[in-house]
């Protein structure tokens, strides 16, 4: 099966996230041996995926294991799911339809919602809302990662946090991830900014390690900034930026 060269180049994210089937992975693996650009993009997406999972991971409460062991005998086992037969999609259309939702959902949901099933009987409505919010976050992140023009840049803040920005001019969106971000302190929060040629525009808040979709349109922005601000944020930066990460030209 012959594949369009442009379609092959768009599969770096899906390959890095394990979202290709065996035949597609084999074909793209062969393509990688002769394409330095795709090798670089694949490495960037692999690093980004690891940071996304690590940034949203949480240690479950110590009581969770004991509660699971007590409740497990009363949980009815469901029959196995048997997927319906389906026709394998064309290689070029695969990423556009399925994108990278499987792998991102598996890594982010497993880390962020690992305790949902345990607590559902006690806090069903609250956990349902949390699950819906987490799913919305995953969908938004997926959309940016799956964009055919997605670009990834990495940086390090002045206080030691590792950061990643994935941007898509086609979607007019960007995703920011932070790992090892120190606690902001009482009455403080971290605020993100989009630098539009010297004009800093608020792009959202992040209080600790995690992944957020930046508010605002990054299309004309030249960099993403991070500052420490009073709780609730500021209309303009009040402190020296901890990070000013240049965005690639679209």
Q: Regions with pLDDT < 50 over 5+ consecutive residues?
A: 1-6, 86-121
Q: Beta-strand percentage?
A: 15-25%
Q: Helices and strands, in N-to-C order?
A: HHHHHHHHHEEEEEEEE
User: What's the end-to-end separation, in Å?
Assistant: 32 Å
Structurally, the number of domains stands at 2
Mean pLDDT: 74
Cα-based radius of gyration, to the nearest Å: 20 Å
Number of helices: 9
Instruction: State the share of residues found in helices, binned by percent.
Output: 25-40%
Structure in a nutshell:
With 250 residues, the protein is of the alpha+beta class. It is built from 9 helices and 8 strands.
What does this structure look like?
The strands form 2 sheets. Strands 1-2-3-6 form a 4-stranded antiparallel beta sheet, covered by helices on one side. The protein has a 4-stranded antiparallel beta sheet with strand order 5-4-7-8, with no helix packed on it. Helix 4 packs parallel to helix 7 (101-112). It folds into 2 domains: 5-72 and 91-146, no CATH class; 151-246, no CATH class. It starts with a helix and ends with a strand. The longest helix is centred in the middle third of the chain and has 23 residues, at 124-146. With 250 residues, the chain is an alpha+beta fold. Residues 1-6 and 86-121 have low confidence and may be disordered. The chain has helices at residues 5-9, 12-16, 22-32, 36-56, 64-71, 91-98, 101-112, 116-119, 124-146; strands spanning 151-156, 162-168, 173-179, 188-196, 199-206, 210-213, 223-230, 243-246.
